[in-house]
Design a protein that fits this description.
The chain is α+β, with helices and mostly antiparallel strands. Helix content is about 45%, strand content about 15%.
Length: about 280
Amino acid sequence: MFRPTLKAAFVALPLMAAAAQAQDADTVVATVDGQDITLGQMIVMRQSVQDPAMAGMPAEALWDTLLDQLVRQAAVAGAAEDTPMLRAQQELQARNTAATAFVGQMAEAEPSDEELQAAYDKLFAEAEAVKEYNAAHILVETEEEAKDLKAQLDDGAEFGDLAEQHSTGPSGPNRGDLGWFAADQMVPPFAEAVAAMEPGAISDPVQTDFGWHVIKLNETRMQEAPTLDEVRGELAQMVRREKVEAEIERIAGEAEVTKTEDLDPALLQDDSLLETE
């Protein structure tokens, strides 16, 4: 199973013998030049498998494949020269792995109904209905172009046709359609013009930082706050995120931290410190 050139002394625990005794994540499945490969490492590696074909292997074949990879990894890692850069990378990776796993465990807990209700009330308890607008526009570079388009529209031209032909904005290919939006989603001159219009009306040219707009207001509506069930998923994510952030702040705040004083920040730019000792 292993290449003849692989210089690694390892002892694999027989599967039948391992099955006959109590095992845990620290159970050693192989030793490579003094480095233990554990059952826990095998399981973590199995969890990280992305290849469906590999994940679907029979148990014994998957075991052999993963063990082979870990043996090779350990052998190569053992041959690597011990340098300040390698040690720094290993320490950072170990800390990052531990912190990521801990945060992942915290984030797995499902928020309670009470927590979701509190989050909903915080966001929407006092929310009032918001007026939304459904509109289309034609965006051009100059006022003269906008005035000419407005004249054509007043003479009966089809708004969508002119938008497709002349609008420089991303909505042009969609006949100028902007869909539904609230006033605060648009730049002030555009929002003010739309708010002053009646459904079906077409505006005179309106200037913004993007250019000159001719706007058609299709309809308006009052958008009520969503129900809790409609935003349950988003609220759950928010609650998890806030709980994780709060726990991180608590742990960091309670940690005993001693910072070395009088170090020159310019040392951060000295890559030579990571060179081989």
